Structure formats: C-alpha cells, structure tokens
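Exam revision sheet. Question 4 asks you to relate a sequence to its structure. Input first:
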Amino acid sequence: MKDQKIKAVAIIGVIIIVSVIGIYIFSSGFNLSGETTDMMGRSIAVPDEINKTYAMSESITVPLYMLAPDKMIAWNSNRTSSENRYLSSQYQNLPILKGGKQNADYDAIIAQNPDVVFVGHGEDKETVNKIQEKFGQIPVLDVEGDNNLTDIVPSLKFMGKVLGEENKSNELVSFYNNVSGKVKNTVSSIPESEKKKVYYAKGENGLSTFAPGSPQVQLITICGGVNVVQSPASKGGMGVSMELVSQWNPDVIITSDSQFYQNVYTNQSWQNVNAVKNKQVYLAPQSPFNWFENPPGANTIIGIPWTAKVIYPDKFSDMDLKNLTKEFYSAFYHYNLTDGEVSDILSSSGLTQF
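Answer key, structure tokens:
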C-alpha cells in the first residue's frame, strides 16, 4: 500500500511538472513549429519565429520588402542604379539570388538557410510541390493574388500573418483601401461618354502593349479610363501597328519606357495621335519599383492616385499626390523622401500639378 501511495504521488508530481512546462511554453509563445495553410490550401509546418525569408518572384519580393525588409536574405533579380535611387543603402547591398521556377539558383538560396520561401501566383500544386522537394525541409508557401491589384488584400494579409508583421500588412491594406476607395467613388460618377481613352505603350517604339484584361493594365480600368486596345485575346502581351494606334487615337498614353517617352513628341509617326498633340503622355515612376506594372502587384498601389491624376487631373485636383507619395515611401519603401525628391519623381513623370 505504501509503495502504491509513493507511485501515485510520483505520477501526480510528473503530471504537475509536465503541466507547468506546457503552460510556460504556451504562454511564452515558444513552439518548435506550427502548421500554416498556404493560399493553395497546402498544410505546411513553419517555424514559430521567422527571421530569414526569400521570395521566388518579383511580385512577392515587393510586398516582402514592404512588410519585412530586414528579414529578406536577397533580391531575386538584378537591380539598376536608377531603381536603387530611392532605396536605403542597407537594402541595396543585399545579394542577388536568382529566382523563378525554371532557373532558380536553389543551392545558393538553400545555403542562406531561409526560414521560409514564398512562391507566387500562376503555379499549380504539382509545380509548387516540386519546388518544395528541391528546398527539402525549408517550408515553401504559395501566395495567390499577388499580381492582381483588385484581389491583392488577401495575399498581403497572408504574408503579414506568416511574417509576424500583421500591423504593417494592415497598414498597407488601409492605405490601399483609402486611395482605391476615393478613386472608385470619383470615377463612378463619370458618364461612359466622357471617359478618356488610354493606351499603355511598351518598348522603345511604343508598339507593344497588353490586352485589356491583363493585370499589367488594371490601373487604366480602376482609374476610370477606357483601354483603347482591341484584341481577340483577353490577356497577355501583344504587338500592335502604328496604324492601329492612330485608329484608336487615345486621349492619354502611359509608358514605362523612358526612351519612348523622350522621343514621342518628336517622332513624326505619333504626331497625329491626340495624346501626343495635347501633351498627354506620361512616364510611370520606377524607383524603387514601377508604379504601373512590372510587376503588376503591391508596387502599383501608389500608382492608383498617380494614374487617376494622369487621366483625370481636373477631377482629382484635391488629391494630394505629393503627401501620399511621401507617406507611401516612408511606410512601405522605408525611405524618407525630401520635398525636392518627391517633386522630381512626379514632375519627371509628366505631371505638372500634384
């Protein structure tokens, strides 16, 4: 009987000790790992604390930089000096580790020992699982909607949660909702007959563009413009002729090509296009990331008020683009623009009032 009592007391003691340890672990937030369901529905074990991350695509690298720049181990593609102009030196000096599903430098990425790797839109489950196999025990998380501005909020919230940066992701979502809501409210009152025709020009000659349903030209529709491009395809890049552009005769032209922008007003082929005749050609700012597309993701959130000003300057005369730009760069690009720098960014894009 005495032995049984001793055993009972010992068992109770062990239970108490285990319970105390369990309570301590739970309350301190320490876990060896936890289960996360990515945006493809895959259940993945991830570290409780994430300090080192890598993104396989540019459309994921941008929000990763916005939300947690100090957790990035590398950029996934080369950056130019002009792109780095408004990027703090501590982030300019991050290494370049090639991403992309076809030619990613898996060995170099693995050598940096990231806690988690993000892959972007457009991959099927089989492809993501193959990427996971190449990374071994390093968890790979799929993010959807990262290149779709009208459906980007869930991806921003998902990444914020995984990274432990929910406050920052909520701040970014709030900025997005604020500018998109104001723009939507204004353009909803514009009659169809008064909407401006817009053409997005790619390449040095301006004769490459995207079909109207492509994410690369979403800002035209979001900001109340009418994409002049007529195509049997709903999405994708395409080449067009000067004859077609003249026939479409856009009121506004937006481009990301500085060479085209510099030459369009002296190029005789473009002189009869309304946008050129009326000096309504605009160059999307591109440092540290493109405001209009390339990639068509979180970086184009600041492109919403810019594009609205470009297409309808009179209707958005009360929108303070200068202060919005300073706010966006400080909060999400981690760079405090001077008044001179923000004026240079906006005036170099062709805007005269901002």
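Marking note for examiners. The mean pLDDT is 90.
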